[in-house]
Amino acid sequence: MATAPDSQFPTIILDSQEESETLALGQRLAGALEPGLVVALQGNLGAGKTRLVKGIASGAGVDPREVTSPTFVLVNEYSGRWPIYHFDTYRLTSGVAFAELGIDEYFAGDGISLVEWADRVPDWLPPDRLEVTIEVTGEQTRRLTIRGLGPRAAEVVRRLNS
Ligand SMILES: Nc1ncnc2c1ncn2[C@@H]1O[C@H](COP(=O)(O)OP(=O)(O)OP(=O)(O)O)[C@@H](O)[C@H]1O
Ligand SMILES: [Mg+2]
Predict the structure, then answer these.
(1) Which ligand is nearest to the CA of 48?
(2) Using alpha carbons only, what angle is made at residue 132 by residues 94 and 81, rounded to the nearest 5 degrees?
(3) Distance of CA 146 to the CA centre of its chain
(4) What is the pLDDT of residue 73?
(5) 44-49 contacts, C-beta under 8 A, 24 or more apart
(6) Ligand 1 centroid to 60 CA: how many Å?
(7) Is 36 left (phi over 0), alpha (psi -120 to 50) or beta?
(8) What is the tens place of the pLDDT at every residue in 58-114?
(9) CB atoms closer than 10 angstroms to residue 80
(10) Which of 13, 115, 139, 144 qualifies as a cystine partner to 87, CB 3.0-4.6 A?
(11) Which ligand is closest to the CA of 43, given by its number?
(12) Where are the domains of the chain?
């Protein structure tokens, strides 16, 4: 774990040595989240975005077996400590198609929105969001870079750092 001091946004870097650790990091992240936040997940195919969502959901009291990639429905809803809205924009043809899912209502509500492939729809995401970038650093290792892009998301990074 290290803090990157040169970033203009509060940042925390977390390394995962194996899949179970990514789940645990998701649970830890859930403990720092608060209702209404949007978490923008980015990283290549197979980086571990859905695994991290499983961890976050399980940290919020959802059975991780419920968590699957939203495909035909495009958004999955899980009910835990707060509602979780799980989006995957990979198959969407445009940002407008994302907006048409009713994102304004999801983002304005009391749930947590988790958006896979968030970098495909940057213009449609709220400015105050938590950005999680997952890099594949080895067959079983991943690096998570978490940045708070606005005041509420920055608080989450501060809580993770403390
Ligand atoms: N440390 C790790 N953390 C997370 N996943 C890992 C790790 N090591 C290996 N893996 C493997 O990487 C894959 C991650 O899959 P996952 O579906 O979470 O990726 P994704 O980023 O959601 O991909 P997609 O873009 O297809 O949605 C799984 O096969 C998992 O077993
Ligand atoms: Mg996925």
Answers:
(1) 1
(2) 95
(3) 9
(4) 73
(5) 44/136, 46/136, 47/134, 47/135, 47/136, 47/142, 48/16, 48/19, 48/22, 48/134, 48/136, 48/142, 49/116, 49/117, 49/134
(6) 20
(7) left
(8) 999 999 999 998 877 789 999 999 999 999 999 888 999 999 999 999 999 999 999
(9) 18
(10) 115
(11) 1
(12) 11-145
> How many percent of the chain have pLDDT more than 90?
88
Tell which residue, 111, 95, 90, 103, has the closest CA to residue 45.
Answer: 90
CATH fit for domain 11-145, picks 3.40.50.300, 1.25.40.20, 3.30.360.10, 3.40.640.10: 3.40.50.300
**Rounded to whole angstroms, how far apart are CA atoms 39 and 54?**
13
Alpha-carbon distance of 44 to 7, in angstroms, equals 22
Neighbour tally for 77: CB within 10 Å: 13
Q: How far apart are CA 84 and CA 138, in angstroms?
A: 30
Does residue 46's CB lie within 6 angstroms of at least one atom of ligand 1? yes
